Amino acid sequence: MRHLFVPTVLIAVTVVSALLGLTLADEPSVPSGHLTPTVFYFHGERRCMTCRSIERTAESVLHAKFAEQLKAGDLVFKVINFDKEENRHFVKELSLAGSGVVIGRVSPSGEIHEPKILQEVWPLAHDEIRMRKYLVTEITSYLGAR
After folding, report:
1. What 8-state DSSP symbol labels residue 25?
2. What whole-number distance in Å separates Cα of residue 28 and Cα of residue 53?
3. Domain ranges, ordered by start, for the chain
4. What is the pLDDT of residue 128?
5. Is 131 exposed, middle or buried (0-12, 13-18, 19+ CB in 10 A)?
6. What is the distance between the alpha carbons of residues 27 and 145, in angstroms, rounded to a whole number?
7. Model-level pTM?
8. Which residues of the chain have pLDDT under 50?
9. How far apart are CA 116 and CA 104, in angstroms?
């Protein structure tokens, strides 16, 4: 009788988890092949010169170093104004403190999985060479993480 207890509990946990839409691992419920790596530049309505510079540098790095991935659709770049009503949810979901660059894997339904906020873009904002290196390193690392 004791031998039946563990498999029965495992089956029950699996069934309940499936019914509630839960997964036992921290992996997204969408297969990784359906998640599109995306680099976001989030900004507000009011934008300073530094904000615009970070966006230009991020876009420039993507087109210079990741052009093939962008062209093939294996990587996407999106600029999002989080002050617009339809985008305000990103501030809470991603714990955004202001403008910045975020990398994530986007599901077909638009959910961002495994977001990574690139914290160093602001400290490096006035050193374009170091910021470019930082962005290339972080994006390359993120893309290779799977």
Report:
1. S
2. 33
3. 31-144
4. 95
5. buried
6. 13
7. 0.75
8. 1-31
9. 6
